[in-house]
Amino acid sequence: MRVLNIVSSPRGDRSASVAVADAFFEALRVRHPDVQVDTLDVWAEALPEFDERASSAKYKAARGGDLDEAERAVWATIRGLADRFRLADRIVVGVPMWNWAYPYKLKQLIDLVTHRGLLFEVKGDTIGPSLDVPLGIAFLVRGQAYPEWGGRPPKEFDHQSSYIDFWLRLIGVREVRTLVVEHTWGDLAGPAVEWGRAQARAMAADF
Ligand SMILES: Cc1cc2nc3c(=O)[nH]c(=O)nc-3n(C[C@H](O)[C@H](O)[C@H](O)COP(=O)(O)O)c2cc1C
């Protein structure tokens, strides 16, 4: 089994999402010693900007136009990143909540790889995935919890889970399991992360 492990916290050893994902992979390796984990750390990967050159490559690739040398180079990098998704039997993504959503570096990766003809297809008026990945997990961590706040329901503060779930399903992850770990900053952080690690270990049992 090959698992793509997307890391989107820049905090390394101090990261709650990395600690939770690490517990998951430790447990998974016990059950599946042959598991191959491809870790795609969006902060370490030197992702190209999705700039004018990359945009031009995308539109030319879509229309079958001739890419110049610089466009070919960036498009090859983008295809290389998308190939790592294609090779995966499972996808795991660790996501810190940043401003009620997710880190911009993760969105950079999403914008780099999520194109018609790469990770999804459009046929007529139907949009469908390019991947066929049976299962994925999103480890979602948040500094605090969201009870009713100033008369606003918790859902209003969550622009993290719905997009990550939507994106994974759109590209072809058939079942997306989610673990939300709250209170990962402040006094409650220690027990919160330990709780998350225990839940993650349990999730490795039928992955
Ligand atoms: C730029 C930034 C924005 C954040 N925004 C939120 C937020 O909107 N809501 C929240 O609950 N926590 C927020 N936090 C706290 C993080 O979600 C929390 O520290 C989490 O543990 C970060 O994940 P990590 O430990 O894997 O890096 C923010 C942290 C940073 C650095």
Observed structural traits:
alpha/beta, 7 strands, 5-stranded parallel β-sheet, binds flavin mononucleotide, 22% strand, Rossmann fold, two-stranded antiparallel sheet, 207 residues
Structural topology:
Layout: E1 2-7, H1 16-31, E2 36-41, H2 52-63, H3 69-86, E3 90-96, H4 104-113, E4 120-123, E5 126-129, E6 133-141, H5 161-171, E7 173-181, H6 189-203
Parallel strand pairs: 1-2, 1-3, 3-6, 6-7
Antiparallel strand pairs: 4-5
Helix pairs in contact: 1-6, 2-3
The structure holds flavin mononucleotide.
CATH topology: Rossmann fold
Q: Could you tell me the number of beta strands?
A: 7
Please give the largest β-sheet: 5 strands, parallel
Strand order of the largest sheet: 2-1-3-6-7
Q: Judging by the overall fold, what is the CATH architecture?
A: 3-Layer(aba) Sandwich
Low-confidence stretches: none
Could you please describe the fold and organization of this structure?
There is one protein chain. The chain has 207 residues and is an alpha/beta fold. The chain has a single domain (2-206), classed as Rossmann fold. The protein is 40% helix and 22% strand. It is built from six helices and seven strands, in the order E-H-E-H-H-E-H-E-E-E-H-E-H. The protein has helices spanning 16-31, 52-63, 69-86, 104-113, 161-171, 189-203; strands spanning 2-7, 36-41, 90-96, 120-123, 126-129, 133-141, 173-181. The protein has a five-stranded parallel sheet, with helices on both faces. It has a two-stranded antiparallel ribbon with strand order 4-5. Strand 4 and strand 5 form a beta hairpin. Helix 2 packs across helix 3 (69-86). The N and C termini lie close together (10 Å). The mean pLDDT is 97.
